[in-house]
């Protein structure tokens, strides 16, 4: 089994790493500065580590994030929060700078779903988006090409979002669809067709591993496996913390038979996905290309996300030297996003969207 990016957990205030890493400023068009982590650190983060060791460290990191453990690090969190927020200031506080940087450029919006457009809840089937968020995203899509980029499969996320005018990149970007031809940003005017499925030949394999994961984990109370078409998600949120190691081992024991699949970590979830080099960052690039901005310097992509998997998109923006990433997080976290938005995310995200719309009108 190969593994990458198995690093972040849900609520853990990862202060020490977040503030101790020396960041290198990267100038981007506009008046502000983005920060990126030194290459050696990025390479280090992506090193594949022995599976067993990795699973143990992941479970340890989840334990440390549970409320009882988190209390002991709270004062540290408070102390160091100020330092983190200086590096990743609130996108609302920096709104004028964002507007200045995007001047004369086409803003293109990329939005993660869970934890960004909808609150994190125990039951993944109940992660509803509010009507006010839907209305605001609809308005946003009238002004700027807008995509949902999510770990969920397109069908599920569409049921929540219900906006036909958006682009959707489901299964961590492995299933990309465009909006119907009636919408103005669909330049090709080809309606609702599949734009890209880079791992389509692995569909039967994912279906098979999903069934095996269901079977293997059924004895663990609270465990849940979600079929996300090109990925499968094993949820830990409702499992007794004492059983997390056991559940992680169950997942690992299934995965070791599937060299074409790998494991990544999200918020109290392990995600099984193809080993192909495709992620939310690649999906962002693909969508920009589909929109006709492949080599354009007149585009300003804004990506908003809350999760480890969104970091690939934040990094892609830094590599392109365009636009900016906004991390939705209550706690300081190691991130390649330039700015932050804090929970309750709905209020702050809607407020940011309203300000963008107001400025555009
Ligand atoms: O890329 P995203 O849109 O952020 O999707 C990532 C995963 O999100 C969902 O799980 C997360 O949200 C659930 C509902 O709030 C929560 O119960 C779970 O603990 C979180 O990990 C979704 O269920 C997964 O399939 C997505 O891959």
Verbal overview:
It is a single chain. This protein has two domains: 13-198 and 278-361, HAD superfamily/HAD-like (Rossmann fold), CATH 3.40.50.1000; 201-274, Trehalose-6-phosphate phosphatase related protein, domain 2 (Alpha-Beta Plaits, 2-Layer Sandwich), CATH 3.30.70. The protein is 39% helix and 18% strand. The longest helix is centred in the last third of the chain and has 16 residues, at 345-360. With 361 residues, it is of the alpha/beta class. The chain starts with a strand and ends with a helix. The strands form three sheets. The chain has an eight-stranded mixed sheet with strand order 8-7-6-5-4-13-14-15, sandwiched between helices. The protein is globular, with a radius of gyration of 20 Å. Residues 1-49 have low confidence and may be disordered. Helix 11 (280-290) packs across helix 12 (311-320). The structure holds the ligand O=P(O)(O)OC[C@H]1O[C@H](O[C@H]2O[C@H](CO)[C@@H](O)[C@H](O)[C@H]2O)[C@H](O)[C@@H](O)[C@@H]1O. Residues 112-115, 120-122, 124, 127, 150-152, 226, 228, 233, 235, 237, 266-269, 271, 307, 309 line the site of the ligand O=P(O)(O)OC[C@H]1O[C@H](O[C@H]2O[C@H](CO)[C@@H](O)[C@H](O)[C@H]2O)[C@H](O)[C@@H](O)[C@@H]1O.
Topology:
Layout: E1 2-3, H1 15-20, E2 24-27, E3 33-36, H2 39-46, H3 51-64, H4 67-72, H5 74-87, H6 95-102, E4 106-111, H7 131-143, E5 146-149, H8 154-161, E6 167-170, E7 175-177, E8 194-196, H9 203-217, E9 224-227, E10 232-235, H10 244-255, E11 261-266, E12 269-274, H11 280-290, E13 299-305, H12 311-320, E14 324-328, E15 339-341, H13 345-360
Helix pairs in contact: 3-10, 7-13, 9-10, 11-12
Residues 112-115, 120-122, 124, 127, 150-152, 226, 228, 233, 235, 237, 266-269, 271, 307, 309 line the site of the ligand O=P(O)(O)OC[C@H]1O[C@H](O[C@H]2O[C@H](CO)[C@@H](O)[C@H](O)[C@H]2O)[C@H](O)[C@@H](O)[C@@H]1O.
């Amino acid at each position: 089994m190969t593994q990458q990016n198995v690093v972040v957990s849900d609520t853990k205030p990862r202060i020490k790493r977040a503030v101790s890493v020396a960041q290198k400023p990267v100038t981007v068009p506009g008046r502000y500065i983005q920060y990126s982590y030194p290459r050696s650190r990025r390479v280090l983060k992506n090193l594949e580590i022995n599976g067993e060791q990795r699973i143990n460290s992941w479970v340890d990191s989840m334990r440390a994030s549970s409320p009882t453990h988190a209390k002991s690090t709270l004062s540290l969190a408070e102390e160091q929060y100020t330092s983190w927020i200086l590096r990743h200031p609130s996108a609302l506080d920096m709104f004028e700078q964002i507007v200045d940087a995007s001047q004369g450029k086409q803003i293109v919006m990329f939005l993660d779903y869970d934890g960004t457009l909808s609150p994190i809840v125990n039951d993944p089937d109940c992660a509803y988006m509010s009507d006010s968020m839907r209305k605001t995203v609809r308005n946003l899509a009238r002004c700027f090409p807008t995509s949902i980029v999510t770990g969920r499969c397109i069908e599920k996320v569409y049921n929540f979002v219900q906006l036909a005018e958006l682009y959707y990149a489901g299964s961590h970007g492995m299933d990309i669809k465009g909006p119907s031809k009636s919408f103005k940003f669909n330049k090709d005017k080809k309606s609702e067709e599949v734009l890209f499925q880079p791992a389509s030949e692995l569909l039967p394999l994912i279906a098979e591993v999903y069934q095996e994961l269901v079977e293997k984990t059924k004895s663990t109370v609270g465990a849940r496996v979600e079929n996300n078409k090109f990925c499968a998600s094993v949820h830990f949120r409702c499992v007794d913390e004492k059983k997390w190691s056991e559940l992680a081992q169950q997942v690992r024991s299934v995965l070791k038979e599937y060299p074409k699949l790998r494991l990544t970590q999200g918020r109290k979830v392990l995600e099984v996905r193809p080993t192909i080099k495709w992620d939310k960052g690649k999906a962002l690039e693909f969508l920009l290309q589909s929109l006709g901005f492949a080599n354009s310097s007149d585009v300003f992509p804004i990506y908003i996300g809350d999760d480890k998997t969104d970091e690939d998109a934040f990094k892609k923006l830094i590599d392109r030297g365009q636009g900016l990433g906004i991390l939705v997080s209550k706690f300081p976290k190691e991130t390649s996003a330039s700015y932050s938005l804090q929970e309750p995310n709905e209020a702050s995200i809607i407020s940011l969207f309203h300000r963008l719309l107001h400025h555009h009108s």
